[in-house]
TrEMBL record:
Domain annotation S1 motif: ranges: 4-73
Pfam families reported for this sequence: S1
Gene3D superfamilies noted in UniProt: Nucleic acid-binding proteins
MF annotations from Gene Ontology: mRNA binding; structural constituent of ribosome
SUPFAM superfamilies linked: Nucleic acid-binding proteins
Name listed for the protein in its UniProt record: S1 motif domain-containing protein
Organism: Companilactobacillus ginsenosidimutans
Domain of life: Bacteria
InterPro entries named in the record: NA-bd_OB-fold (IPR012340), Ribos_protein_bS1-like (IPR050437), Ribosomal_protein_S1-like (IPR035104), S1_domain (IPR003029)
BP-aspect Gene Ontology terms: translation
Task performed by this protein: Binds mRNA; thus facilitating recognition of the initiation point. It is needed to translate mRNA with a short Shine-Dalgarno (SD) purine-rich sequence.
Amino acid sequence: MKIGDKLSGKVSGIQPYGVFVSLDNGIQGLVHISELKNGFVTGIADEYKIGDKVKVVVMDIDEYNGKVSLSLRALQNRKLGRPILHKHFWTNYKNEIGYSSIAKVKQSWVDDAMDRIGSGK
């Protein structure tokens, strides 16, 4: 077994911090709550039961104590975040107004700011 291997196993324990998986090669590993799925995990015991068959990826093997870190999330092919439904523009590009509406009032904004700076307000 090495990091990156995709293995099969069965859920052998459920804790608030993750799920223990007994792998087919006889080794037990932990899928930390952060590696269960993309997004927020509400209730581990609601989603996983002891004896469930799962496919996991080996994320890390601690060479000193032999603990194996596993991931279910690494096998999920989901995009994070909300899809972009409509692209927003700061100008009305359909009317081709662009910078011209700002250019008309820019000098008055600059003059007003300079007056405030000069008067110390």
